[in-house]
Amino acid sequence: MSEFIWEEPPVWGFNNAKYHREAEVLKSRPGEWCRLFEFSRQGRANTLTQTIKKGQAGFAPMGAFEAVTRTVKSGQTGDRIVYVYARYKGVAELSSPSPRGEE
User: Any idea what the Cα angle at residue 23 is, between residues 61 and 5, rounded to 5°?
Assistant: First the structure.
C-alpha cells in the first residue's frame, strides 16, 4: 500500500450496514420512537434490540440509538406479537467526560 488512509475502522461484523436505511430514517427524526419491526418470537426481537443498542448493523455508534420491545396480542387472532421500537438519541451524549479538574 503506497499511501496511508486515516479513518475509523468499521463496526465489527460482516453485515455492517444491514439496517442502514432504518437507521437513516430514525436519524431524520431524533428523539422520536418508531415501531421498526414485528416478530412472532421474543428471542428474535431481543437479539435485534441488542444489535441496535450495541451500534451494530448500521446503528453506529454504540449508544446513539435506544431500542425496546413490547409484546401485544393481535386483535384478530389473539396471537402474541413482539414489536421492536427504536429512536435516535444522537451522539452529543456520547462525548467523553472532561479530564478531572476541568469542568
Answer: 45
| Grid coordinates belonging to 41 | 418470537
Domain boundaries, the chain: 20-90
User: pTM for the complete prediction?
Assistant: 0.71
pLDDT tens by residue, 22-36:
999 999 999 999 999
- Share of residues in the chain with pLDDT > 90 (%): 51
Catalogue the long-range contacts made by 50-58 (C-beta closer than 8 Å, 24 or more residues apart): 51/19, 52/19, 52/84, 52/86, 55/11, 56/11, 56/12, 56/13, 56/16, 57/11, 57/13, 57/15, 57/16, 57/17, 57/18, 57/19, 58/16, 58/17, 58/18, 58/19, 58/20, 58/21, 58/22, 58/23
